[in-house]
Amino acid sequence: MKYDIILAGVGGQGILSIAFVLDNAALEEGLFFKQAEVHGMSQRGGAVQSHLRLSDKLIYSDLIPLGQAEMILSVEPLETLRYLEYLRPEGVIVSSSTPYTNIPDYPPLEEVCREIKKAPVHVLIESEKLAKEAGSAKAQNMVMLGAASIFLPLKEESLKKYIQILFERRGDQIIQTNLKALDLGRQAALASRRE
Amino acid sequence: MEKIVLLGDEAVALAAVQAGLSAAYSYPGTPASEIMEYLLRLSEGGKNYRAEWSVNEKVAYEEALGVSFAGKRAMVSFKHVGLNVAADPFINSAITGANGGLVVVVADDPGMHSSQNEQDSRYYADFARIICLEPTNHQEAYDMTREAFDLSERFGIPVMVRLVTRLAHSRSSVEPREPRPQNEGRPYGNAQDWTLLPANARRRFKVLLDHQNSLQEYSEETNYNQLVLSSKGKKFGVVVSGIAYNYFKEVSAYLPLEPSYLKVSTYPFPVKKLHQLLPMVDEILVIEEGYPFIERFIRGVSDISGKTIRGKLDGSLPPSGELTPDLVAKALGLPERVGLKVTDIKLANRPPQLCSGCPHIDTYKALNEALREFPRGNVFSDIGCYTLGALPPFQAIKTCVCMGASISMAKGGADAGIYPSVAVIGDSTFAHSGITPLLDAVYSNTNMTVIILDNGTVAMTGTQPSFGTGEPLDRLLIGLGIDKNHLKVIVPLPRNHQENVKIIKEELDYEGISVIIARRECIQSLGEKKRSPK
Fold first, then answer.
1. Domain annotation covers residue B350
2. What are the Cα distances from residue A30, in Å, to A145, A165, B2, B5?
3. pLDDT greater at residue B301 or residue B225
4. A69 contacts in chain B (CB < 8 Å)
5. What is the number of other CB atoms lying within 10 angstroms of the CB of residue B222?
6. A131–chain B nearest CA distance, Å
């Protein structure tokens, strides 16, 4: 088993929190993992991405080769489109449909979503709406992780465990908001697959 | 011991602690900052070692050298350009030698993700004639950092550990080993060794040169350098180092025959191992992250007549930027792999930008307006978040070179006739390297204006503490000789815009040196304070 994921979004959207949960869940389940991330300048509202690789065998490269990723998991629709060349032709796109428009020349959203829908397997999630429903617009990253979880080779319990650890210091309410966000994302993805 | 999830940077930090570290120093800089961040976190548990941010890399290095002189184990860490700042003590510490183990960790940034160049620190280690260790993965980052302390004490020299962004900022699991305590202390360094008067320095340099054979021997024997000879793939061999080894192993599985290869993780370069490989092959591909360091070395030291050496010098691999598994696959002759078709719509770029509510935004708006009537003026800037003032919509600055250069270049610019000549520098960058050039400008009473953006933190690298902020900064400036009538403090807020424009204009008009402090806390550090539990 080998499962390569491109994580994408905008600096500040919590990509590295998704990565924290996946890394630790992978270790918990006895898998090998490697996860390359971006710090520093690019975190200030710029495009960010992380290469996350899971496998039951030793992983060498920290970076995913082109055309090898099983999944693009993106908290922002325009960011999804930057990394298409990494996705296997039969790979999955799990993308938010909520735009983060901190740039003047953001293309029309319908056009962006239309491009995402060209992928053979895609799940588009209204992450902001669901995150607000869970209790905080900031939980969009966990909504998206929940949506991705229906495809991931990791148990839901492991993900929940590390969401709790991640938000431990922030109090029970924030933990519950993020767990609910995970669940709402998961339900939305399941519903979308049934359509 | 149980495996834990660590960044490459964190693996280095943990290894240092478990090697019996007594003190560590650093200055923030991507991709090295997380080494000290993690040391600080680990020390909070009451562990008995000192971990501190220093005012700059030179100071950090000299502090670590002082610890080594005193007989204790020390580590200093910074990004590649930080070693330029620390180059003076670094080179000279190879001559004094190390007493307590001294490890210098340098994180290079190939591809310039967050840097102004992609210099390769292996050249520095070679220049200083010391050992350089180049781990390929997280476990090696841990193991080799521990070994670095032993090597430093065994050979009596500082030892470099070279990381690159992709290892420093990649997470994986690491299995730590049993920690060892700090040493009991040994006698101080010998005065004749550590006082680099020419007579002493000549003798010490000879000692360093005499050591080279032992360093070479270490490199030939260590298991970190592996020569794997393939009985089948005879014509073609690979020499590969550091992170590039991962890309090579990732894609070599797709080759019909795995070639013979030499994995290099320590320098001096293991020449004997190369000479075992050379007779077996007609062609060698050198794969290394950074400059063609090994490739040039091989061309220089070996009889390669009749053999083809491929790498960055012949264009088999790109001479700049980061390697990827795909570039390595191409150099190995593997077919290109393609993913999903790239979209036809134009993807707007999303460059990093100043945060909404950032004080620098208000400062740049006021500065731009104040400068509107001075088309021949120039704004020299520096390293920090405020370098983003170069991008639209501000386009407020014209230079960014290295830490502190804004003030020195503004003086040079003024000397050459630029008026107004303005320097824009952050509070931490000012403490790091801005004080001495300002003293220079005061001495010459240069007609220039320095704007210190005092947001109270090292914002770009993750809000580390600043050494030159608030009221002590004001006193420092008076102490440097700034006329208090031309030391102004403004609060960069939209509602103060007109007043701030007026103050900046007045100081631009003043014929002499003036300093304006634009003081408002970084909204990132403000947010962190609000979020952190009381």
1. no
2. 20, 18, 12, 12
3. B225
4. 339
5. 17
6. 20
Contact between chains at B246 and A61 (C-beta distance less than 8 A): yes
Nearest to B51 by CA among B31, B69, B33: B33
Q: What is the pLDDT of residues A120-135, one digit of tens each?
A: 999 999 999 999 999 9
Q: Are residues B475 and B440 in the same domain?
A: yes
Chain A residues near residue B339 by CB distance under 8 angstroms: 66-69, 84-89, 91
For residue B238, the domain's CATH number is 3.40.50.920
Examine the domain organization and report whether B305 and B371 are in the same domain: no
Does B247 contact A82 at a Cβ distance shorter than 8 Å?
Answer: no
Question: Domain A2-194 sits in which CATH superfamily?
Answer: Pyruvate-ferredoxin oxidoreductase, PFOR, domain III (3.40.920.10)
Q: How many domains, chain B?
A: 3
DSSP β-bridge partners for residue B78: B106
* Cβ within 8 Å, pair B30-A39: yes
All structural domains of chain A with their residue ranges: 2-194
Q: Same domain for B197 and B261?
A: no
Q: Look up the CATH number of the domain holding residue B51.
A: 3.40.50.970
Residue whose tokens read 């200083």: B128
The per-residue pLDDT for B534 is 45
Together in a domain, B140 and B168: yes
Closest CA to A23 of A15, A117, B310: A15
Question: How confident is the model at residue B185, as a pLDDT?
Answer: 85
Q: Do B460 and A39 count as a contact with CB atoms less than 8 A apart?
A: no
pLDDT in tens, B196-209: 999 999 999 999 99
Q: Which residues of A touch B31 (CB under 8 A)?
A: 39-40
Residue B346 within any structural domain of the chain: no
Domain for residue B393, yes or no? Answer: yes
Q: Does A119 touch chain B (CB under 8 A)?
A: yes
**Cα angle A24-A29-A30, degrees, rounded to a multiple of 5:** 100
B368 and B327 together in one domain: no
| Residues B30-50 pLDDT 10s | 999 999 999 999 997 656 799
In this predicted structure, what is the pLDDT of residue A43?
A: 67
Assigned token pair, A35: 């996860």
Q: Does A165 touch chain B (CB under 8 A)?
A: no
By residue range, what is the domain housing residue B171?
4-217
Whether residue B413 is found in the same domain as residue B497: yes
| Least trusted range by pLDDT, from A40-49, A146-155, B391-400, B513-522 | A40-49
Contact B343 A84 (CB under 8 A): yes
Query: How far is the CA of B128 from the CAs of A141, B93, B132, B157, B305, in angstroms?
Result: 47, 9, 10, 10, 30
Global pTM value? 0.95
3-class secondary structure for B450-506? EEEEECCEECCCCCEECCCCHHHHHHHHHHHCCCHHHEEEECCCHHHHHHHHHHHHH
Give me the sheet containing A69-74, strands edge to edge: A121-125, A87-96, A69-74, A2-10, A47-55, A32-36, B170-174, B4-7
Give me the mean pLDDT over the B348-365 stretch: 93
Nearest chain B residue (CA) to A174: B531
Q: Is B337 inside any structural domain?
A: no
Examine the domain organization and report whether B323 and B374 are in the same domain. Answer: no
Judge contact between B248 and B240, C-beta under 8 A: yes
